[in-house]
Input
Amino acid sequence: MDLDLGEKRAVITGGSRGIGKSIAVVLASEGAEVAICGRNKDSLEQAAADILKETGKSILAVVADTTNTASVESFIGAAADHLGGIDILVNNAAAPGGLVMGPLNTANPEELLADIDTKVVGYMRVAKAAAPHLKEGGWGRIINIGGLAARSGGAISGMRNVALTHFTKTLSNELGPQGINVNIIHPGATRTERTGPLNQALAKERNVSVKDVENAASAGIDIRRIIESKEVAFLAAFLASPKSSAITGEAIAAGGGVGSAVFQ
Output
């Protein structure tokens, strides 16, 4: 299927690695012009080089911090100038898994505030800066990357993903009449550059093999494996495309069928 992304212009936060980088690769492969941001210059430059090698397309890579409004506005302005406008926003910049993973007695309120500032308020900062550019074209897509912690208890930082679901529907209500669709993807356990080293460390700690660690991690997933970051990117590319015109305000899981809850 041709996703009709050849003339679209996309910006991706947290695009130097993991899911964000995979989305940048897939959108560029589909013909979109892409700009990414992240906080680490070296990682951004490496990502840009990797994407050029894989897709043959140069992308704009800008150092930016989504917890800083001026930095966000500078990135969005640079991206709009370089690309000639913005059609697609992918909000992805966040600490993977969150900063507050343990029990209440060890939970640090300042770390939770940092999580929310990055993944909730940060997404709002970027959407606020980008929305005028999407409105100008009379067409747009905003895709928020959340997490399946929104649908189950277990980690205090998971509350940020619940907030993002509400934010997504609120933006969909507001921006839909102006041709802008807004959706959220909830990835589950996803393989990224961090997965290998983390699993090796867990295997050593538990005195088991890396395969044993992966088997344990995927035991509750219907397809019995963790998701590849590019699989999340394929979904994001569809939602970013004109083909997804009937889908907005939705929370879509990309976790391989993890859990047993039923959502109607």
The radius of gyration is 18 Å. The domain at 9-188+229-253 is CATH 3.40.50.720 (Rossmann fold). Helices lie at 18-29, 41-55, 69-83, 109-137, 159-175, 195-206, 210-217, 229-240.
